[in-house]
Amino acid sequence: QVQLVESGGGLVQAGESLTLSCTISGSTGRIHSMGWYRQAPGKERELVARFLQGSSTNYADSVQGRFTISRDNAKNTIYLQMNNLKPEDTAVYYCHVITYRHYMNYWGQGTQVTVSS
């Protein structure tokens, strides 16, 4: 059973920073991709940042230069450092993993990030 547990969300003012964490547990086998998505009220879930097939990274244009994805393999944890937050970054942020084994998708429970202007 693969589990993803996020933490680190909260309420901040515009211009401030937050770091999200996602700890991955269970038998994942080799991982195809892992990263972060977000979903704002009334909008579709969208990719924020991810590692793809190892060390390659993808970022949404809207967060490029402000957000950084990183990982600690020893802790099975990925992070999302979010700087210069904007009100439009307000959303529920989800950790996401795709494994090579059957290309299974796993999601965390989500953590709320609210940015006030």
Describe the structure.
The chain has 117 residues and is mainly β. Helix content is 0%, strand content 57%. The strands form two sheets. Strands 2, 4, 5, 6, 9, 10 and 11 form a seven-stranded mixed beta sheet that branches. It has a four-stranded antiparallel beta sheet with strand order 1-3-8-7, with no helix packed on it.
Stretches with pLDDT under 50, minimum 5 residues: none
- How much strand content do the residues show? over 45%
Category from helices, strands and their pairing:
mainly beta
Could you state the order of secondary-structure elements as H and E?
EEEEEEEEEEE
Count of DSSP helices? 0
End-to-end gap: 40 Å
- What average pLDDT do the residues reach? 96
**What is the rounded Rg?**
14 Å
Biggest β-sheet description: 7 strands, mixed
For the secondary structure, the number of strands is 11
What would you call the shape?
A: globular
Residue share in helices?
under 10%
Labels describing this entry:
7-stranded mixed beta sheet; 4-stranded antiparallel beta sheet; 117 residues; 57% strand
In short:
With 117 residues, this protein is an all-beta fold. It has strands at residues 3-7, 10-13, 18-25, 31-39, 46-52, 56-59, 67-72, 77-82, 91-99, 105-107, 111-116. Helix content is 0%, strand content 57%.
Sequence-ordered SSE layout with sheet pairings:
Layout: E1 3-7, E2 10-13, E3 18-25, E4 31-39, E5 46-52, E6 56-59, E7 67-72, E8 77-82, E9 91-99, E10 105-107, E11 111-116
Parallel strand pairs: 2-11
Antiparallel strand pairs: 1-3, 3-8, 4-5, 4-9, 5-6, 7-8, 9-10, 9-11
